[in-house]
Amino acid sequence: MDREEIAKAVEVVVFRWCNTPGDVEDPPTKELTYTALGAVFSQLHRFPTLAHLDLNLCPDMYPEPLVVNGTGYVDLGRHPSAAGIVEFTLLQALLRGSSRLCLKSLTLANISGYPYEFYKSQGFVEVLSSIEHLHVSVHNGMYSIDGPRSEELSDWMWLVTVPANLLGPTQARLTSLTLMSDLPVGRSPRVDLSPLFFPMLRYLELGGFIFDHHRRTEDFIVRQGQTLTTLVLDSCSMYMSLGQDPIRPWRDVCDRFAETLGVLIDVQFHIREGWGLDNRKRTGEGLRLSTHLGLTTSNAAKHRLGHSAQMSISACPIELLALIVNRISDDKGLRVVRAVDRMFCALATPLIFQRVYVKNRLPSAQNLAALMEHDEVAQVVKTVVFHWCNDPERVEDTPTKESTYIALEIIFSHLHLFPALVNLELNLCPDICPQPLVVDDSGHVDLDRNPSEAVIVESTLLQALLRGTDRPHLKSLAITNLSGYPYKFSNSQDFVEVLSSVEHLHIGLNDALIIGPCAWKLAEWMWLVTLPDSLLGPTQARLMSLTLVSHHVPTSFSLLLDFSTLFFPVLHRIKLDRIALDHHRRIEDFIVAHGRTLRTLVLDSCPMRVSFEGGPPRPWHLVCNRFAETLEVLVDVQFHSRDEWYLDIDAGGTTGDLETRLLYLFGGLSWEYGPWEREHVELLDRIAIEHLLAKVEQRRLGEKTSRAGYAAM
C-alpha cells in the first residue's frame, strides 16, 4: 500500500480468516493485528484501481461467539470474540474516512448475522451503489451469536437488514447477486425480497432458502424475469406440513419459471451434503429439489424424508419452547438452543423433551408426531400432556379438523413408541359452548347431525389409547373435563389393563357438557355406575393417590355415590372436589376404610347435605371426630371452599395458604349454616375441626422429630 507503483496495480483485495492452531496469537499481538487491519481497510482508497473486495470471515465462531447484552448491544470488552472483533474492525474501517471506494464486486462471506448500525449508514449505501456483483452469506449457525437477545437479533438480520440495508439501496448496476444462509431461512425467519427489483440482474444464486405458498421468494425471482439468464437454487426447499402434500409443489414453481423467465439459459438446482457455509460440497446427482417437511428438512431429495432428517424448533408448541429455556441452565446449552432455532437434530440433549405437549390443532399434533418418529427424542419422553385449545384466532376449517383428529388418533394409539412414558394428562374441553354433546330421547349421540368437537376429540383420544396390543405402562393418569357420557369402551378389559398400573389417578367430570332430553340420565349413569365400577372398580392394587372432581356445582348425583365397597391397599392421598357428603356416610366410609394408609385428605368445596327442615342429619363435627379417631396416619388435612358459603376456621397446622372452610348444602343452595340452631352447630363444628387439626399437627411433628433423630444416629 505504501509503494505507489505496486498499489496502482492492485485490483482485488482478499481477506481470508486463519484458524491454524500453530498461528494462534497472544492477546498483545492480537491487538496489534486488529490495529493493522483497521489501518489497512480504512485506506483501501490508496489502491486507485481496486474494484473487487472479498472478505472471507470466520466460518465457525466457536468457542468465541459474538456476545450481546440485554439491550442488544455487542459487549466485546467483557466477551472478546476474535471473529466478532475482526468482522467489526473490517466493516467499520471500510466506511471510515471521506475517500471511499468505487467497487464493482463485493463479497461478504460468513458475516455473523448481527445487524450492525453501520449497515444503515449513508457510507454503506455509497459503497453498495457502484456494485455490479454482490455475494452475501450470513452465519446463523452454532455459536454465531450469544446473549439474551441473540435469536431476536439474528432474525432481524434477515427480516430487515438484508432486504432493507444490504439490498434495499438503489443498486442500478447490480448484475450478479448471491445470497446464502448456513441454515434455512425464508419462512422462519420470514424473508421478503418480493419488492426488490434490479434492472440489470443477470445472475441470481440463493442458498438455504425455504419457499412456500406465499411465493415471496418466488415472486422476487420472477420479477427479474426480463434480464435473468442464470438461476441457481442451492439447497432451497419447499415447505410442507407433515402428512399432507405441499400446498405449492415444486412442479408449479418450475412451470412458472418456464413461463416467466424469458431469457433464462442456465438453471441449476443443487443440494449440499451438509449444512454450514464451510460445507458447500454438492451432491453429484444432477438437478435435485428438496421439500421442507413441517418440522423436518430432508436433504435426501424430492418429497422423501431422509435418514439424516433434521428438525426445526420454529413450529413447535410455545409450551415446548418455554420448557427448553427453563430446563437448560448452563450458558453453553442455551447457546446451542438459540443457535438451532431453525434446525436441529435432537437438540444438544434430548432430556428437555421429558415432558411434551399437544393441542387439538393440526400443527401441534404434527409436531408431536415428528418427535415420536425420532428414537433419540422418543426414548426420553416421560409425560405427554394434551391441552384443549379454544383460541378463536386459530379455529380450523372442517377438512383441517378431520386431519387433526386423524393425527391425534395416530399419536395416542402409538404412545408405546415413547418407551419411558409413565404420565399422561388429558385436559379436555372445559366449556359447553359452542358445541355441547347433544343426546336424543334414547340417549344416543348423533355426531353427524350435531358434531361436537369436544366430544369427538375426547372419544378419539380415549379410544386410540386402548387400540392395539402395545399400550403404555402408565403410573399417572389425569383426565379433566370428561364429558360425563358413559362410553361403552370404559367397561372394556382394555381400559382395565390401562388402569392396572396407575399409581396416581385424577378424574374430573363435567356433566354440563351434555344437553338433550336424556342428558341428566346419562350424567347420572356416569356418576353412579361408570365412575365407581369402571374407572375405580378394577383392581388397582398400586393406586396411591386419587383425585375426583366435579367441574359443575356439587352434583346431586354425588349424594348417591357409593364407594364404600372400594378399597385400595396403598392409598396415601385422597382429594375430593365438589363431591357432596350426607348422613348415609358412603363417601365418609370410603375415606375411613383407608385409615391405616391415608396420609393426606383434601375436601375442596365438598358440602354436607341437609334437609329443608331441622338441622343437618350428619353435622360436620361428627365427621371430623370420626376422622380424628380412625385416620391413624393422617398428617395433612385440608378443607377448602371456592365459594362464599363457608365456615372460617384457623387452619392451624394445615399446609398451604388457604383457610380451612366447611359448608352445608341446604336444598339446592349452599349456606354457612341453615335456619336451625346455627350457633350451637357452629360451636361444635369449630371444636371438632380444631381437635382434628391439632391431632394431625401433633402426628406430623412427631414424625419430623423421629426423622431428625434417625438422621442424627
TrEMBL record:
Superkingdom, taxonomy of origin: Eukaryota
PANTHER family: F-BOX DOMAIN PROTEIN (AFU_ORTHOLOGUE AFUA_4G00200) (PTHR42057), F-BOX DOMAIN PROTEIN (AFU_ORTHOLOGUE AFUA_4G00200)-RELATED (PTHR42057:SF2)
The protein, known as: F-box domain-containing protein
